[in-house]
Every structure is written in structure tokens, then in C-alpha cells.
Amino acid sequence: MKLGTDSYFRRKIINPVLDLLKQGVTPEKLSLSVALGITLGIIPLLGIITIVCAFLAIHFRLNAAVMIIFSNLVYPIQIALYIPFIRLGEYTFDIPSIPFSISEVLATIRHDWIEAINRFGLANLLGLFSWAIVAIPLGLGVYYAALYIFRRSKTRKLAH
After folding, report:
1. Using only C-alpha atoms, what is the Rg of the chain?
2. How far is 65 from 36, CA to CA, in rounded Å?
3. Can you state the angle between helices 75-92 and 64-73, rounded to 10 degrees?
4. How large is the average pLDDT for residues 17-21?
5. What would the 3-class secondary structure string for the chain be?
6. Which of 48, 60, 71, 125 registers the highest number of CB atoms within 10 A of its CB?
7. Which of 49, 109, 100, 108 is nearest to 74 (CA)?
8. d(Cα 114, Cα 151) in Å, to the nearest integer?
9. CB 71 within 8 A of CB 46
10. What are the structural domain ranges in the chain?
């Protein structure tokens, strides 16, 4: 991967997203797609993000591809924040620490996802609560940052 103007990230992510502005997608809708994709992408529920993104994109008439791309880009962050979200929920509700590890959770999900839901249900609820606290300011921050970038990009494209 080159870090210059023709980098892989620019060619495969940035330019296609900016091209949507040329096709009439509003900066507001595009920013909301990016913000929801990133915010939902870190939710501490493994394996359902693509379905949730697709449903919300259809329901709110947003760009599903953009939402799914950005939710997948933050997948490593989702994995990294999985246990911290749960620990924050335990702390918030003053619940003793639930002993488990990421590898144990992933192995259980691969073996029997219903067993994983039963076994780690409370932990997931605590993680969801913590994510909900973080999601609103994160989503708003990403939305307004993306909106600023997309409006500037659209203005520059129109000026050229």
C-alpha cells in the first residue's frame, strides 16, 4: 500500500464515497450513513451488524454500501472494545466481574451460538448498555465531522 495520493485506502474507500456526492447523494445522507456504519460497527454484538446496517439503510433510505463498508472498517475496534464495554457495564451496575475471554466467546459462538447467547447474555446486555452511552456522542461527532468533510468536498468538486 502506498501512502501517496493513489493509496489503496483512497482508491477503494475515499474516492468511491466522494463519487456518491457527484451522483446526487446529499452530504447529510452520506454523513448519516458513515456515522451509523461506524457507530453500529462497534456495538458489542458479534455477527449481526451487516443485517442491522442493511435494515436501517433501507428504512431510512441511506446508502447501505457505505454503512456496511464503514461498519466493517471498524470491526477490529469492535473486537477490541467488546470486553471494555462489558466491564464498563459491570462497573456502572456494580455487578461482579463475569469471567470470560474473547477467544472463549468466539469459540462458543462458532460451536453453538444459542449456547453463547445463554452463557454470555448478561455480559452482552451490560456491553449494550455501555455502548448506548458511548454511541450517541460518537455518532454525533462522526456525523458532524463527515458532514463538514463532505460539504467541503462537494463545494470543491462544484468549483472545479
Report:
1. 18
2. 12
3. 70
4. 67
5. CCCCCCCHHHHHHHHHHHHHHHCCCCHHHHHHHHHHHHHHHCCCCCCCHHHHHHHHHHHHCCCHHHHHHHHHHCHHHHHHHHHHHHHHHHHHCCCCCCCCCHHHHHHHHHHCHHHHHHHHHHHHHHHHHHHHHHHHHHHHHHHHHHHHHHHHHHHHHHHC
6. 71
7. 49
8. 45
9. no
10. 8-155
All three cell numbers of 158: 462544484
**Is residue 147 within 8 Å of 31, Cβ to Cβ?**
yes
Confidence of residue 5 (pLDDT cuts 50, 70, 90): low
Confidence of residue 43 (pLDDT cuts 50, 70, 90): very high
Residues 102/123, Cβ–Cβ less than 8 Å: no
Q: Quick check: 47 and 109 in contact, CB under 8 A?
A: yes
Cell output for 26: 446529499
Q: Which triple of cell numbers denotes residue 1? A: 500500500
CA 76 to chain centre: 10
* C-beta separation of 48 from 38 below 8 A: no
